[in-house]
């Protein structure tokens, strides 16, 4: 095991994944932390008529450009900065802007299908699944999409029942079986998050010792953790 550590944070829509990632980042403020949100890697639909874009199932694995995200993880692991795309949710296209993400000791990769996608899963040193009640998630989703993404109430509720809920049952919830750690009750479970941060600090310490030759992993033992 060596730095950087790549941590995947998955869970249903509006389950608190981003809150968990933020709290981890804050707790590890003495370390360099990079953040890649899977939502930034939606496929660019600018070649598609706008009315057709609105019909795309954004909760299906095919909506994401996973190889592009994996290439950014590889670059960060190689010590190279990346230019993370910025997605325009009102137009369903990538904007002209990007966000520079610098190499770090730990890379947080967050998104609904992080644990479903085999390409992404192969890159993860630690896999986390965040759970929350369905009623709580739909209320958060409605509030977020209306306030932040310019959607109407009718559009959000129709999308939830037609695509979000079926895709959650088909792809997101089953991916929980790949998790190393499950965080119940969403992003407000500070006890679980504190335990998670402690585990990450221990892994970072072991990885640092391994890099300096102070810590050796016997071949017969296999991966740590």
Can you characterise this structure?
- The protein is of the alpha/beta class.
- It has a single domain (about 5-190), classed as Rossmann fold, CATH 3.40.50.300.
- It has 7 helices and 7 strands.
- The chain has helices at about 15-25, 50-55, 65-75, 120, 135-150, 155-170, 190-210; strands at about 5-10, 35, 80-90, 95-100, 105-110, 125-130, 180-185.
- A hairpin with a 4-residue loop joins strand 3 (about 80-90) and strand 4.
- Helix 1 packs across helix 7 and helix 5 (about 135-150) crosses helix 6 (about 155-170).
- The radius of gyration is 18 Å and the shape is globular.
- The model is unreliable at about 210-225 (pLDDT under 50).
* Terminal Cα span: 10 Å
Report the sheet-strand fraction. Answer: 15-25%
Provide the spatial order of strands within the biggest beta sheet.
2-5-1-6-7
**What is the overall number of helices?**
7
